[in-house]
Amino acid sequence: MKMKKYLACLTAALLMGAAFTACGGSTETGSSAAPEVNVQEAPETAPEAANGGDNAESDSADDAGSEADAESKADSEAEDSAAEVTTADDVQFEEARTAQPGQAYLAIVDGQWWVQYWGSAEKDGYMLSYDAGIADIQGDGSYTVSVTTDTNGFRYDTNDGDIDGEYRAGEGMNFLAVMIPEGETLYPGAVITIDSILVNGTELELNGKNYTSSDDGVETRANLYNSWVSEPSADAHSTEGYLYDEDGNAIVDDISDYSAQLVSPDDFTSWTTVEVNFTITGTDGSLARASSGDSSADEADGAAASSVEANDADTEADADTEADADTEADADAEAGAAED
Prior knowledge:
Layout: H1 2-22, H2 27-33, H3 41-44, H4 46-51, H5 53-84, E1 103-109, E2 116-117, E3 135-136, E4 141-148, H6 152-158, E5 175-180, H7 183-186, E6 191-199, E7 202-203, E8 213-214, E9 220-226, E10 237-238, E11 241-242, E12 273-281, H8 295-339
Antiparallel strand pairs: 1-2, 1-3, 1-5, 4-12, 5-9, 6-7, 6-12, 8-9, 10-11
């Protein structure tokens, strides 16, 4: 609008100058009128004039509209970004399970020592605690333990909170075993016999026989894949009984058939669910082998010693009785001879 006013004033000034010239005005009048026309302002407004006043206003409006669109787009993107972030309050998590003393669980470690489970929902690979299959041992019988990566909890913990996107599956295998916390105290001598191992629903072929042992004297285990163990440990036992005598000598003919590597890591290239079915026997303690430090063993030794002492006393008493009888007989014989 200012440009229009400027152009109108300029046109009017020029017309007035022409009118004065046509009327024969004096030179002073003409010279005094000319400065009123600010012809120097024209270059300053030339760019606007070149585009036209209406176009300039339109450009300003377009610029403002573009800025508004940019702000709106930024707000929209921010809202979309916020919508993509899933908080823990928005997730329906499965039950995170911890194995209690006397319960069996599947201890597992993947090839990179990241995806793992050690029976706890709070530490050491808790991401596999969601919906973990834990068996409550109630005496001899058949049980199943398992782990799975197909849970909202696992996806949330391993995929930056995105439970709908692609998630990491287990890759490779470093360790696999059936474990019973405090099993050595609760079920001394109990035997875990592996019936089957399934990966993603497919049963694996077992490379030998498993045995039962303990790594710390507290937790009972059956190693299914333990690359650090090359032969059964001294406390290894199975349904055949203990594999070694107290001096460490093998007392079973097929000791080489027992292994801590029943499966191969090649069978665990990419796994979602791992399931192990097993049978447990000897929970009544019938196979328990008392050590020299056990009170039961000490009591048995004491009882045996007492029995031996009692037998010795009886023998000594019998000997004394026989000696007395012989002495008395000899005395009687001597007396009879004297009478004769």
